[in-house]
Amino acid sequence: MKKHYEFIVIGGGSAGYAAASTYGKGRNEVAVVDSSAELGGLCILRGCMPSKTLLYIADVLHHARHGAKFGLEIPSAKADMAAVHERKKRIIGEFADYRAGQLQSGKFELYRHSARFVDDKTILLDDGSELTADAFLVSTGSVVNFPPLAGLKEDSAIISDNVLDLDHLPESVIVLGGGVVACELAQFLNRMGSKVIQIQRNPMILKEGSPEAARVVMQAFRDEGIELHTGTKITKIEKTGDRFQVAFQANGQEVTREATYLFNAMGRKPNTANLGLDHARVELLPSGHLKTNSFQQSTNPRIYAAGDCAGPHEIVHVAIMQGEVAARHAAGLNPEPVNYDHLTKVIFTDPQVAATGITETDLKASNVPFLSADYPFNDHGKSILMEAKYGYVKVWADQSNGTVLGAECVGKDAGELIHSMTVAVALKANVFDLLKAHWYHPTLSEIWTYPLEEIAEELKPG
To answer: Taking the alpha carbons of 166, 171, 175, 181 in that order, is the dihedral positive or negative?
Structure first.
């Protein structure tokens, strides 16, 4: 079977669905090719939604176990992992069914097959069909990375997919890695009742964020009982019977730890193998991502890329924005590129870590003069009464006029609180504009007024 379309999307996750529905000229003009066993994409099936469902459950359990801080007598609180698992399956099933319905709605043609490029105009499906298009979007997501470590085997270590699908509580787990997935799920396992040993190569966890934020989360992890090792070098991984042993160097010493499970959480890599991208004259970056311009075009202008396989930020809302930009550009609508100066990131550890706008590091590298101010949660009324004392808020603004350039929040509900500053960054509001607002007392949100007022005071004389 041979058929031609205006626009073909390979991968029906968040970026792919957004692109197909945005291009949206009808069933005979747009096709989506998705080879996954279940429709929905990484976010819904094995990423954001299941992990946040479980993290919230662990948060509730944690508060119940520490009820004495609030004068509450709660005799016992423990996890029923089978019930937790069933709740997660039910919720995620509803999300997945809704996305599957969208993909099967008839707005575009859906092919449940794998595809590879024959040339830059043609893809071959695994059933022998050939599809041609004026433009393509590659949105095939990412897969778990298995670094070449002695003894690390794909068939023995568990990955995030397995952790999110647990229906029992592991006695003990060694977590390899210190990125977002490693930290979120290490804390989840610890709060549910597993003994967690986390081993990170770098001196800091969450190394893509600020060192200040990492230090707060590291302290919280250790206070909760996670055995966290940083600045390590793994020398050997070995499985004996039903237990894993990991040997590593830390602080100039040889250390060995043992657990019933080994969790490989050392990142993901773009899912681009077997796509035949070389036949389509598409170049990859050293990271494995497709090399793209500001309109998401690859080195072959007929072929676009969006989402985790494109980078530079593997975040769902960014994937959606990239997919929409690619579709509009392919349709000749001259869209605005994604503005990464407005980027917002959230890490769902407890305390949460959230940031928006241009980072302080990038501002310094660009020699942009700015003012910054911060304020701690342990000196703020609402956070004190909530026993939410870890962390701080920080704002940085243009030194000449006070326009907010970025902000960071580490603390209780940081993922919600950051959006006040996300709006400020997007609208180019200055600190004086924000201080005109009514910040209700007592709320967590009013903590932003302290750094805003400090910067405003510094600007007044000028």
So the answer is: positive
Alpha-carbon distances of 365 from 307, 343, 358, 397, rounded to whole Å: 27, 18, 11, 16
User: Facing residues of 130 across strands?
Assistant: 2, 124
At 317, list the tokens: 């809302």
Report the pLDDT value the prediction gives residue 150, as an integer from 0 to 100: 83
- Classify 412 in phi/psi space as left (phi over 0), alpha (psi -120 to 50) or beta: beta
Which DSSP string corresponds to 25-57? Answer: --TTTEEEE---SSTTHHHHHHSHHHHHHHHHH
**Below-50 pLDDT ranges, the chain:** none
Question: What is the rounded distance in angstroms from the CA atom of residue 125 to the CA atom of residue 281?
Answer: 19
Cα separation, 243 vs 8, whole angstroms:
47
pLDDT score for 46: 87
pLDDT for the residue 461: 64
Cα separation, 21 vs 411, in Å, equals 37
| DSSP conformation class of 97 | H
105, 24 in Cβ contact below 8 A?
Answer: no
pLDDT tens profile 297-316: 999 999 999 999 999 999 99
3-state secondary structure 197-262: EEECCCCCCCCCCCHHHHHHHHHHHHHHCCEEECCEEEEEEEEECCEEEEEEEECCEEEEEEECEE
Q: Can you count the helices (H) and strands (E) in the chain?
A: 13, 21
Domains of the chain: 2-144+269-340 (3.50.50.60), 160-266 (3.50.50.60), 341-459 (3.30.390.30)
pTM flag (> 0.70): yes
* Separation of alpha carbons 131 and 371, rounded Å: 55
Distance CA 360, CA 238 (A): 42
Task: Determine the length of the chain.
Answer: 462
List of residues 6+ apart from 129 with CB closer than 8 A? 1, 2, 3, 111, 113
